[in-house]
Amino acid sequence: MKKNAGLLIGVIYLLIAMGAFKKSIAGWGAGFSDLGFWWIVIGVLLTIAGFGALVGTWIHAWSTDEGH
Questions:
Q1: 1-22 pLDDT, tens digit each
Q2: 10 neighbors 54 (Cβ within 8 angstroms)
Q3: Dihedral pair phi/psi, residue 30, rounded to 5°
Q4: Is residue 42 exposed (0-12), middle (13-18) or buried (19+ Cβ within 10 Å)?
Q5: Spatial contact of 54 and 7, defined as CB atoms under 8 Å apart
Q6: Any residues with CB less than 8 A from the CB of 47 and at least 6 apart, and which?
Q7: Distance between CA atoms of residues 4 and 36, nearest Å
């Protein structure tokens, strides 16, 4: 169960990050460089969180020593 939850959370964070990057591109394209910049910052932080959730799930749920 925790494998699925961790993977789901990681994927959701990455999807939200993709949305933030799209907002950033739209902001830069509309001439709002401040919005473009801050949406990139948010997107990067969400990407780090998403990959952190996926790697953390990999490490903890597929551990070979079973917590001993």
A1: 778 999 999 999 999 999 999 9
A2: yes
A3: -85, 0
A4: middle
A5: yes
A6: 13, 14, 17
A7: 33
Q: What is the pLDDT of residues 18-55, one digit of tens each?
A: 999 999 999 999 999 999 999 999 999 999 999 999 99
Report how far residue 34's alpha carbon sits from residue 38's, in angstroms, rounded to the nearest whole number.
6
Per DSSP, the three-state class of 64 is: coil
Encoded amino acid at 20, one letter:
A
- Contact call for residues 50 and 18 (beta carbons, < 8 A): no
Q: 20: burial class by Cβ within 10 Å (0-12, 13-18, 19+)?
A: buried
d(CA 23, CA 25): 5
Query: Which two tokens mark 67?
Result: 């917590």
**How many helices and strands, by DSSP H and E, does the chain display?**
2, 0
